[in-house]
């Protein structure tokens, strides 16, 4: 008897490995996958502008990174004690305008470089609902707790989502593979019917793009969460975000669908190193623990020699200190 509905995932037409750099943009699910890729020392940059929930902000960020145009002081606005940008997450804000501008422009420069060097992109769309400044019509990445009367809330249409990415897929992303995902995070504040409509809009728009552009493929993170892991035990207490176990499971499925099999051996070795880093001996000065650290330092040096492009300096410093 079958008590699950596992999804038959079509592998991507290309494989991610240590030889290609990647750029991830989008919702907090992009952060979850990006952090796991970083943990395994895959050369990726994720969300230089901070978390981006809606497709218009993802497309706007890519356009800005392609141009490399820096922001000016008059692009910032005040929200309480902070200077903020409507194109950026609040994590880039500051009480000092010059400091905020410096942080934002450093993000532009690092993101532009990441886009130029990227061999592939992973774009995760979270919601089709957007907030638009009434005064200018600009869709914002984040409202930064400004008064609600300054914004108009509306849902993007499928055509608007598709239209925002067409110039990018025919321009700077033309020769770059793109993995699309829809975030499995439920936006309960929108209401369940509105959340379903939003996710449906994103899924239809992405599949229109995939049908049109051969460099695109779809990874069903949303479907894995809502159908394969169809149980509230796989959610955090807020009943909106996937639990750590759920994200780990989706990550395993992603590895099978998109990662080069040669990465598996490196992942196992890095997992073993991380367990060794987390080990806390009863007596750090004991001969046995010194021997343990000496052995692990030798293993790290061997790994560094085998994979010269990866940075094991943190691990080596720990075991040699």
TrEMBL record:
GSCFA domain sequence ranges: 23-254
A Pfam family: GSCFA
Domain of life, source organism: Bacteria
InterPro entries for the chain: GSCFA
Protein name in the entry: GSCFA domain-containing protein
């Amino acid at each position: 008897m079958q008590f699950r509905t596992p999804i038959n995932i079509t592998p991507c037409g290309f494989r991610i490995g240590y030889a290609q750099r990647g750029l991830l943009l989008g919702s907090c699910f992009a952060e979850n996958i990006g952090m796991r890729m970083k943990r395994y020392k895959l050369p990726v940059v994720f969300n230089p502008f901070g978390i981006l929930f809606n497709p218009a902000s993802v497309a706007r960020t890519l356009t800005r990174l392609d141009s490399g145009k820096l922001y000016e002081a008059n692009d910032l606005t005040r929200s309480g004690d902070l200077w903020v940008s409507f194109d950026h997450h609040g994590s880039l804000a500051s009480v000092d305008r010059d400091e905020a501008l410096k942080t934002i422009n450093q993000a532009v420069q690092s993101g532009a470089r990441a886009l130029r060097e990227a061999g592939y992109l992973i774009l995760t769309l979270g919601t089709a609902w957007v907030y638009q400044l009434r005064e200018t019509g600009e869709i914002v990445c984040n409202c930064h707790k400004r008064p609600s009367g300054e914004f108009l809330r509306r849902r993007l249409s499928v055509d608007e989502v598709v239209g925002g990415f067409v110039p990018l897929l025919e321009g700077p992303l033309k020769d770059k593979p793109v993995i699309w995902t829809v975030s499995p995070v439920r936006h309960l504040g929108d209401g369940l019917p509105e959340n379903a409509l939003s996710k449906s809009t994103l899924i239809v728009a992405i599949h229109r793009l995939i049908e049109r552009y051969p460099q695109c493929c779809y990874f069903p993170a949303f479907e894995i969460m809502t159908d394969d892991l169809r149980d509230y035990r796989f959610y955090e207490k807020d009943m909106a975000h996937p639990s750590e176990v759920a994200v780990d499971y989706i990550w395993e499925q992603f590895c099978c669908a998109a990662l080069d099999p040669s990465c598996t051996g490196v992942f196992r070795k890095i997992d073993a190193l991380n367990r060794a880093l987390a080990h806390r001996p009863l007596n750090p000065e004991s001969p046995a623990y010194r021997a343990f650290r000496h052995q692990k330092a030798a293993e790290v040096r061997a790994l560094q020699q085998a994979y010269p492009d990866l940075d094991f300096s943190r691990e080596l410093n720990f075991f040699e200190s």
